[in-house]
Write a structure and sequence with these properties.
Layout (H helix, E strand, L loop, with lengths): L5 H6 L2 H9 L5 H8 L7 H16 L16 H7 L8 H23 L5 H7 L7 H7 L14 H29 L4 E9 L2 E7 L9 E5 L5 E5 L1
């Protein structure tokens, strides 16, 4: 067992070396891990790590390069999962899918090319290749990151009701649009959007002839926006 004294590490400027190494890390998590590196306490562990490093570096110089293994940290997501009645946003679920796919790809790759990477293959054997989590998330979140209508029976019912209501609102608006367009109560633009709502662009002189809630007007005052 080897134990290097703290003063010796300070004299060797070990912390400075770690800071220089950490600058090459592309993620905050990797940066933290690099800064936390400590000297190995036995030769066997040291040699194993050197073998792993050697195999990884060699992948840059042969025809079987290790697949992309970059990923977004899911530290926050894992913390939230420990809290009862919490939930994850869809982008967090997609991050979990991405890291699962990446892990599966690398483990499968190392198994296929075990001859090239025997130590990395042995190291990765503790990681299980599974698609259960990926399939579960993909069943409720589409490729655009939106929750699918059929993610649950209740959600499907709610969205169907919302679509029916939107259809009625659009139908009512179209009816009002035609009703007030014929007598030329509307400006040339006919309609606009105020606070994410479709409104009629009514000529100011006819605002009393159009039923609805006034939502504002144009800068010139010539147009009044009315929600029928």
């Amino acid at each position: 067992m080897i134990n290097i004294h703290t003063k010796t590490l300070q004299d060797l400027e070990f912390a400075t070396v770690l800071e220089q190494v950490s600058e090459y890390c592309v993620t905050h998590l990797g940066n933290q891990k690099a800064l936390a590196i400590a000297p190995y306490q036995d030769k066997e562990t040291l040699l194993k790590s050197l073998q792993l490093t050697n195999e990884y570096v060699s992948s840059y110089y042969n025809d079987n390069r290790i697949p992309n293994h970059g990923f977004d940290a899911i530290t926050k997501e894992l913390q939230l999962l420990r809290i009862e009645n919490t939930y994850l946003e869809t982008h967090s679920l997609k991050k979990i899918v991405s890291i699962s796919l990446t892990a599966n790809e690398i483990v499968t790759f190392l198994k296929k090319f075990e001859e090239y990477y025997p130590n990395l293959r042995h190291f990765s054997q503790r990681i299980e290749v599974t698609t259960a989590l990926i399939e579960k998330i993909d069943s409720v979140v589409d490729r655009f990151g939106d929750v699918k209508d059929n993610a649950s029976a209740l959600l499907q019912e709610i969205r169907q009701s919302m679509n029916k209501l939107k259809g009625k609102i659009n139908s009512s608006f179209t009816s009002a649009l035609n009703q007030y367009h014929n007598p030329e109560y509307l400006d040339d633009i006919r309609e606009s959007v105020v606070d994410n709502k479709r409104v009629l662009a009514v000529k100011a002189m006819y605002r009393r002839k159009v039923k609805g809630a006034i939502m504002g007007g144009s800068k010139t005052g010539s147009i009044v926006y009315i929600e029928p």
